[in-house]
Structures are given as structure tokens and as C-alpha cells.
Amino acid sequence: IFPEGLGSIGYDGLDGMYVFKDVMLHAQNTAGLALEYFRSYDLTWQRPWMYFDKFTAINASRLNSCSNTRLSNVGLMETYFKYTNDSEGVTVS
């Protein structure tokens, strides 16, 4: 299965993941694993988790709750809904 380009959806966007250079080099030098390439994360063939901390290494006390982020800004969420009609992504009241 391959993705098919269907054209523009009306806005440009980017997504991605940042991987520290030393982590990428370690994976490359020890396993020949190119962590900047999405297929390197296929768990059938590779073990990319070996090069990352576990989620439990995150100090949860340093995280904000959603109510302390832009996600709780009613105006921004109304604008998001207006332009995307994404009722799955917001609570409409």
C-alpha cells in the first residue's frame, strides 16, 4: 500500500520528529540504522527503540495539563473548528 497524492487541502503544513544528532550517529554506527528515514521505524525489521529513552524517563511534573496550553483557548479552538470542521478534534458545546 502506498500513499496517493490527492492535491492540496487548502493549507501548507509540516510534521516531523526531531532526533538528536548523537542518537542518529549512534544508531548509524552500531546498527547501520538511519533514524532520519521513516522505514527505519518498521519494527518487523528494526529495533529503533534501542536508541531512545523510555517514556518513563520524562519528568511528568514538568508537563503542563491541557488546561494550561493553547488547547484550552476557546477562540483558537473555534477558529480551528471553523476552518477544519474537525468535530473529532474539539469538543463542540
Sequence-ordered SSE layout with sheet pairings:
Blueprint: H1 21-31, H2 74-84
Explain this structure to me?
The protein is an all-alpha fold and 93 residues long. It has 2 helices and no strands. It is flat, with a radius of gyration of 19 Å. The model has no long low-confidence stretch (mean pLDDT 85).
Describe this structure in a few short sentences.
The chain is mainly alpha-helical and 93 residues long. The protein has two helices and no strands. It has helices at residues 21-31, 74-84.
Largest sheet: none
Tell me the number of helical segments per DSSP (H or I, 4 or more residues long). Answer: 2
Mean of pLDDT: 85
Calculate Rg over CA atoms: 19 Å
Structure class: mainly alpha
Number of strands: 0
Distance linking N and C termini: 38 Å
Percent helix, as a range, is 10-25%
Residue stretches low in confidence (pLDDT < 50, at least 5 long) are: none
The ordered string of helix (H) and strand (E) elements is HH
Q: Tell me, what's the shape?
A: flat
In percent terms, what proportion of residues is strand? under 5%
Provide the descriptors you would attach to this structure in a database record.
93 residues; 2 helices
